[in-house]
Amino acid sequence: MSYTPRFDCGHLCLDLLATTHPEEQLTTPAHLRRWITAAALVPEATPLDHITPDWLTAFRELRGHIAGLVHPAASLTTRPDPDAYDASLARLNDLARPAPPAPRAVRTDTGVLTRALAHTPDRAALLAVVARDTVELLTDPVACASLRQCAGDNCPLVYVDTSRGRRRRWCSSEICGNRERVARHRRRAAVSRA
Asked: Residue 172 and residue 6: Cα distance in Å, rounded?
């Protein structure tokens, strides 16, 4: 499976949720390595060969908890099961507890400073980055009030609506918005032919 990770939802945790659509994208350690690097959890040249299949399970678990917390916040009608919500919140807080990877400035051969990590990041540190981003999102009243569920057919994505007037309808105008416009055009064409 070839895919390009999406980073247009407005928050890192929401971009992790986007790895489920249109199908599961975190299927191998290589896919997770690509997402971690593309998400800038680590600098570009950071070796991530130590990522194993159990990392996939941990990132998917975190993603499930994020979904359980964010989808109700984006919906005006859905009310979460209080026990499941509280369990997800407790697990999120546990995952946010470890220290994230420590960055440092390193001089390259050409004398330019670049970002590197003090140590190879472990799973808990990288999960903490995403979990902390979720905590930031859920505790920011402005961002929380701007959470929207994509209006596209069968699109489960949630995004932060930063558009002017807060009237954005789709996670991506190029993807879901284009599908909606094409469907609307086909419906009008069918009506005019009938």
From this structure: 10
Cβ pair 119, 101 in contact under 8 A = yes
Q: Is the link from the previous residue into 22 a cis peptide, with omega within 30 of 0?
A: yes
Q: Are strands 158-160 and 113-117 parallel, antiparallel or unpaired?
A: unpaired
CA 113 vs CA 38, 106, 107, 109: distances in Å: 20, 5, 4, 10
What gap in Å lies between CA 129 and CA 76, rounded to an integer? 28
Two tokens, residue 70:
């964010």
pLDDT tens digits, 49-85: 999 999 999 999 999 999 999 998 888 777 889 999 9
Q: What is the pLDDT of residues 155-177, one digit of tens each?
A: 889 999 988 887 888 777 667 76
Helix, strand, coil abundance in the chain, percent, nearest 5: 50, 10, 40
Q: Concatenated DSSP letters for 62-118?
A: HHHHHHHHHHHHH-SS----HHHHHHHHHHHHHHH-SPPPPEEEEE-TTS-EEEEES
Query: Virtual CA dihedral for 140, 141, 142, 147, nearest 10 degrees?
Result: 90
Cα 87 from Cα 68, distance rounded (Å):
10
Triad 31, 36, 40: Cα angle to 5°: 145
128 touches 98 (CB < 8 A)? yes
* pTM as predicted: 0.88
